[in-house]
Every structure is written in structure tokens, then in C-alpha cells.
Design a protein that fits this description.
alpha+beta; 6-stranded mixed beta sheet; Aminopeptidase; 12 helices; single chain
């Protein structure tokens, strides 16, 4: 049987740094949003201001060899005094969340976790409210089974589509796999810029000395979109900058720009992690729309991905039309609510 421990102190959480990411690499859902440094940054701003308050409720499970599972949770209180438990990272800016546990331990871990939570003295604890679980996560069936065993109500609902592309490892094979009309359109837009006579280049930020300037350049492009400008509150800017710094230090930041005549025309903030590219956000210079810079840069990124052994190109949450034009296929993220 596993031994469970509750961690409510951020200092004690900090001590899990190395063990956390090592366990994640073996976990049921190995995604950048569950890395220690990402979730720590999220907690410092409460998701860029998404949550006004909250209290850490991290639960670890251990055996004789060390930690075998982590429930990265926090609690929030509702106006009526009842308490919900959610994943740290919930829910707007962290596309995928889950428990951190290897597949072979997930059933035993969750069974013991529910018993442990049931024994905690949390005033009016009402439910586990778990956002952004991938539909193929082994945690889903284990959660349902364990909830029924405890006599608790289990409900799962689809939140969003998360389109992705399986990379064949060859640019031409990739192009051949998508709709003929779209293939022609991608090639046409890339060639139009290349034959325009305008100086252009695309690059991935890899110099720590220029990182701060490049991050500000990215946020400037983001803010040219009205909705994104509203989204980028001062606290959300702090969150975004902190996320990019953490990813750079961890070696998984993949911040790409397209320049035309020396001016930033488009940018994609992606993470290069676990042999996948995870497309997190983007920005386009409105003055360069005639060159379709977003499409062109996306084409360069897909070409790079095929040439560099990337297995999947994950557009993550959202069913925007352009994702499917580039050949993406849906999967889904779910919300699971378990009422105590």
C-alpha cells in the first residue's frame, strides 16, 4: 500500500522539484503543463489572475522506493463556504492536465487518494472538479471506477477539441497527406513571399541574451489582436513571460518568428517537448497581412518538424478552421466532476 502525504506549504512543494519532473516523464500524461516549473509559475500568479485565491492541496503517494504518484491539487472556497478541489493549472491557460503517476500505478494510486481525501478534515468539501483531461488518459476510467467504489457521483463532459497532426517525418509526404487545394494554398503562400523580392527570414530564439527582447516582441504581436490584447492584463503578461522563461531554462521553449524586411511579421510560441511541438499561442503583424505571414511561418514550422524527428504537431485546444486546413485531426479534452 502507498503512503500518502498532504503538502500545503509552497516551500515543501519546492523540495519535490527533481522528483516531480522525473515522475512526469513516466506518467500517464507527459505534457509541458504538468512540469514543476510551469505549475510553480502558474501558482505564483494564480493563472495570470484567473483565481483570486486558493490553497495548495498537493498529495503525494510513496512506497519503499520513493514517490510513485502526485495529485497536483489546490482548493478554492465558494461563497456558500463549500470547497472544491481542482488541478493546479486549471483551467484557461493550461491546455492539458492530469495526475502525475505511471500507468501501472494509476488505479491503486487513485483508489488510495480517494480514501485519503475522504479522511481529510476539509469543511464542506463538495467535489473534485478536474479540467482538461485528455480523452485517452488512463486516469478517466480509474477515476470513474474509484468514484463508484466510494459511492460518489461521477460525471464527465467534453470541453473542447484539440486538433493535432501526426508527422510522417518528410515534408513532401506531409503535404501529400492533406487536401489538394490546401496543399496548393500552403505552397502558393510560401512561394509568394520567397519570390517577392522582400528580404525575409524565420528563426527560433536560442540566445539567452536576446530572450527578454524577443518575448516582448512576441507579446507585442499578440496584442495586435483585439481579444488577445484584452487577455494580456498586467498579471497575465507576467504569467506569459514567466512561462517562456521557465520553458527556455528547461530547454523546451520554441519561440519562432518570421521577419519581412527586418520587421517581425508573425510569431508562434510553441514548446518542443517529448518529441512533440505544442502550439501555445501566436501573433501576427497586421501591416504584413498581404504576405499571409501566419500561414507562411506555420508552413516553415511544419517543415522543420518533419525534418527534425517531431512525432506530433499539437495545436492544442480550440477548433479554429486553419488547423484542419493544415491536416489536423481532432481529439478532445474532458472535465470530470466527482461529487463527495
Amino acid at each position: 500500500m502507498f503512503k500518502y502525504q498532504l503538502i500545503k506549504d509552497p516551500g515543501a512543494w519546492e523540495e519535490l522539484n527533481l522528483q516531480w519532473n522525473d515522475l512526469l516523464a513516466m506518467g500517464v500524461t507527459n505534457v509541458p503543463f504538468l512540469r514543476f516549473e510551469y505549475l510553480r509559475q502558474w501558482w505564483q500568479t494564480r493563472g495570470g489572475g484567473e483565481w483570486a485565491d486558493g490553497e495548495l492541496m498537493i498529495v503525494t503517494a510513496s512506497d519503499a522506493n520513493g514517490i510513485v504518484g502526485i495529485a497536483p491539487l489546490f482548493q478554492k472556497s465558494d461563497p456558500d463556504g463549500s470547497v472544491d478541489l481542482l488541478f493546479i493549472g486549471s483551467f484557461e491557460i493550461s491546455d492539458y492536465l492530469d495526475f502525475i503517476v505511471p500507468k501501472e500505478h494509476v488505479d491503486e494510486f487513485l483508489d488510495g487518494l480517494f480514501q485519503f481525501l475522504n479522511g481529510l478534515i476539509i469543511a464542506k468539501w463538495r467535489r473534485l472538479d478536474l479540467y482538461n483531461l485528455l480523452e485517452d488518459s488512463p486516469s478517466l476510467s480509474a477515476l470513474e471506477k474509484t468514484a463508484k467504489k466510494q459511492g460518489w457521483h461521477y460525471e464527465a463532459s467534453v470541453l473542447q477539441q484539440t486538433p493535432r497532426i501526426h508527422m510522417p517525418g518528410d515534408w513532401e509526404k506531409y503535404l501529400a497527406s492533406i487536401d489538394k487545394k490546401q496543399r496548393h494554398e500552403i505552397r502558393r503562400k510560401m512561394r509568394r513571399l520567397e519570390h517577392s523580392g522582400h528580404g525575409h527570414r524565420w528563426y527560433i530564439v536560442d540566445d539567452a541574451a536576446t530572450l527578454e527582447r524577443e518575448m516582448e516582441g512576441f507579446l507585442h504581436l499578440m496584442a495586435q489582436d483585439d481579444k488577445k490584447r484584452t487577455f494580456l492584463t498586467p498579471l497575465m503578461r507576467e504569467q506569459m513571460l514567466g512561462t517562456m522563461r521557465c520553458a527556455f531554462q528547461a530547454g523546451c521553449l520554441h519561440l519562432a518568428f518570421l521577419e519581412i524586411d527586418g520587421t517581425k511579421a508573425a510569431a508562434y510560441l510553441t514548446f518542443y517537448y517529448d518529441n512533440q511541438l505544442w502550439v501555445y499561442n501566436s501573433g501576427v503583424n497586421h501591416e504584413q497581412y498581404d504576405f499571409s505571414p501566419g500561414w507562411v511561418l506555420l508552413g516553415y514550422l511544419l517543415e522543420w518538424a518533419n525534418e527534425n524527428g517531431v512525432l506530433e504537431f499539437d495545436f492544442m485546444r480550440g477548433n479554429e478552421d486553419y488547423k484542419y486546413k493544415f491536416g489536423a485531426v481532432d481529439r478532445r479534452v474532458l472535465r470530470v466532476q466527482i461529487t463527495h
